[in-house]
Every structure is written in C-alpha cells, then in structure tokens.
Amino acid sequence: LMGAFISFKMKNPWVTKLNYNVSKSILDFFINVCGIGGFIIITGVLEKQLMQKEKISQLFTLCFSRILSLFLCCAYMICNKRMRLFFHPAPIVPVAILNIVSIISQILAFQTIQFPSFAASKPLRIVLVSVILRYPLKRWYIIFGLLCSHFIYFYEYNRSGDSISWIGIFWLVVFCLSDSVTGIWQEKIFQKYKIKPITMMYYTNMFTIGILLPHIIYEEPIIKHIEHILLDSSIMPLLIGISIFGFLSQFFTIRMIYQFGSLVLFTSNSSRALFYIMMFRMILQDIISIMEYIEFVIIILLICTIVILEKGWLNRALNRKRHFQLLTPQKNTVSL
Question: C-alpha distances in angstroms, 190 versus 14, 83, 94, 132, 136?
C-alpha cells in the first residue's frame, strides 16, 4: 500500500478529464440526512441482534459487510457505463487506513469507557475539522460543537452514568482525529480528482478488505464462524441485512461529503442526534430541566446563525441596503 502511494507521488496518474458538475440542493441535503440517520439506525438494530448471539465477532462482521459492499459497488459500476472510469487508487489508501484506525479505536474505547463519553466525543469532530481546514466561521462551529458535546454527555450520563479512564480518553482522541482526517481527506480527493461517491466506496472497501483479511484469516476463528452460520439459520440474514443497510448508510455519508463537505456532514450528524434526543424525551414525557431547554434553544440559534452566515444572506441584505441608500437622492441642505 505504501509502495502504491509512493509511486503515485512520483508519477502523475491518469485522471479523467470529464468536468463533473456537483449538483446539490436543499432537497439533496435532507435526503442525505434522512438516508444516513435511517439506515444507521436499522444497521445498529441488526448488529445488536447479531451481537446478542455472541457467535460472530465485530471484525468478521465488518469484513463480511465490506466484501458484499464491494460487490454491490462493482455491479453498479459495471451496469453504469459512465462509471467505467478508473484512476490511480493510491490517494484512497490513507482513507482505508484511517477508517480501520477509527473503527479499532472505537472498539478499544468501549472496553474502558461507557457510552456517554463516546457519544459526547462525536460532536468534537466539528471542532477538529473546522480548525484543521481553517474555516472562516470556525469560531461559530467550535461553540456549536462544544455545546452539542455538553448537551449529549449530560443526557446520556443521567440515563446510564459513566466511568472514565485515561486509556479510554486516549482511544477517543485517536477515534476523533482519525475520523475527522478521513472526512477531510475524502473531501480533498473529491475536489482534486472529480470522482464519484461510488468510486470512492469501491476503492475504500477494496483496501479495507485487504487490511482486514490477514487478521481475519490468521487471528479469527473463521472455521467456527462458518460453522455458526451454517448451524444457525438466523445469522446469515442478519449479516446480509447489516451489509446492505451499511452499504446504503455509507453511500449517503460519502454523498454528503461529495456534495457539501465533511464539516457539513459532522454538523448535520450532531444536529440530528440532538433532535432525536429531544423528540424521544417529549414522546416519552421525560422531565426536561429549564437549563436543558435554554441550552437547546441556544444551539438552535447557533444553527440558524451559521446557516445565515454560510448563505451570505446578511451580507447581501446589507449590500442591498447600501445600494439603495446610494441610489436614493439626498436633499440639499443650506446652512446659514
């Protein structure tokens, strides 16, 4: 993999010359948000049912789902003639490596910490991405990420409590850094090489399988996994369901980065989590304190402020006002 990356740096690979116009709208944004949220929930439910059997490991499930996802990507690229455009896959090697690092660090973090700390760490990716990209509105995004992290942590902490260890915090930091850089790297690849999301998925899954397979073959009890699949008829449908819905959630995630960028992806994920929490608490008639209402309102105001500044509505309104003032004839005053 490193040899492929070095050869890519030494030689200029063939890159398609087609000018891809990234079409995006507010409808695409909500489609991506609903696709990511909906399919991740379904995948999580199926994974929970599979983990309850305690027969199939997480890495084996991940490898199986990526293999099936690779076949689905390949089938789509074969059927779609416009997708038969390949380029040197070396830039996607770091994406696969960082993806594996984030997954492994997430698994290791859960061994020493509980869910509240992990849930609170996800909005901190907004802070990291905005700082790394030196985003013009990074101050607003930093405040938004910190408030979201605080809100989610205390909600989960009041539900189940928490236990914090330095080792768990270390793996959380590794998870946040690797996941943030993965999104940034994918965004830069889309901007430079003009590839499609399905192409990104194809090569990412291919390299991920190449990294995982040696571990699965030499470390995992693969024969026992196959025996469990053959003996228990409910395991294979769960694996196929996890693979298909995981493929769909991965597609909408990469599509969001392709159309709107990694910062919008992490911001929308944190916003969706906040709305889910408030919605379920209202449905279950859970007690919500005044401070939680105030913090939620402040977060909503921050979202509105970021949208207004991103769209440039305030600047356009001020420019129109100045233009109108310049066109309006002023009365001549004579001073005695």
Answer: 15, 15, 14, 18, 21
> How many other CB atoms sit within 10 Å of the CB of residue 307?
10
The alpha carbon dihedral of 288, 291, 296, 297 has a sign of: positive
Q: Are 247 and 238 in contact (CB under 8 A)?
A: no
Nearest to 98, CA basis, from 41, 179, 219, 162: 179
Model-level pTM?
0.83
Task: State what percent of residues in the chain have pLDDT above 90.
Answer: 28
73-88 pLDDT, tens digit each:
888 888 876 665 556 7
- Give the span between the Cα atoms of 72 and 318, in whole angstroms: 50
**H, E, C per residue of the chain:** CHHHHHHHHHCCCCCCCCCCCCCCCHHHHHHHHHHHHHHHHHHHHHHHHHHHHCCCCHHHHHHHHHHHHHHHHHHHHHHCHHHCCCCCCHHHHHHHHHHHHHHHHHHHHCCCCCHHHHHHHCCHHHHHHHHHCCCCCHHHHHHHHHHHHHHHHHHHHHHHCCCCCHHHHHHHHHHHHHHHHHHHHHHHHHHHHCCCHHHHHHHHHHHHHHHHHHHHHHCCCHHHHHHHHHHCCCHHHHHHHHHHHHHHHHHHHHHHHHHHCHHHHHHHHHHHHHHHHHHHHHHCCCCCCHHHHHHHHHHHHHHHHHHHHHHCHHHHHHHHHHHHHHHCCCCCCCCC
* Tokens representing residue 202 in the block: 């194809």
Q: pLDDT band at residue 13, thresholds of 50, 70 and 90?
A: very low
Q: Give mean pLDDT, residues 31-42.
A: 92
Q: What is the tens place of the pLDDT at every residue in 106-149?
A: 888 888 888 788 888 899 999 999 988 888 888 889 999 999 99
